[in-house]
Amino acid sequence: MDCIFCKIIKKEIPAAPILENDQLIAVKDINPQAPVHILIIPKKHYATLLDCKDKMLFGEMLSMANEVAKKLGVHEKGFRLAINTNHEGGQTVLHLHIHLLAGRPLSGVLG
Ligand code: 5GP
Ligand code: ZN
To answer: Among 3.40.50.720, 3.10.450.50, 1.10.760.10, 3.30.428.10, what is the CATH number of 4-102?
Structure first.
């Protein structure tokens, strides 16, 4: 499959993981929108949030977001998670992922 995140997961594209387990990988975004911008990506390919029915996996994704925030030391000041879904949601890579943003005050659509 011609999916950039599947290539990262298969290590066909190098991307030093921040954290990794059997189900998930967390990597730095190539085009960071904040001093800390991490992507939490399931190893199984789901095009969008709508395509994943695995409630356990949703929990695992949020759990890894907490772990990443703590590992990078941004948990106390705070961070934001986002899942862009489909075109108007701003999704550009059709492989489910959570954005973790931190390291500056986050203003914008959500204030
Ligand atoms: P989306 O717009 O789909 O919510 O987010 C996709 C994100 O993937 C973007 O923030 C973009 O910068 C990031 N991205 C695209 N290609 C690559 C890549 O090859 N490596 C990494 N680490 N991030 C990527
Ligand atoms: Zn994929």
So the answer is: 3.30.428.10
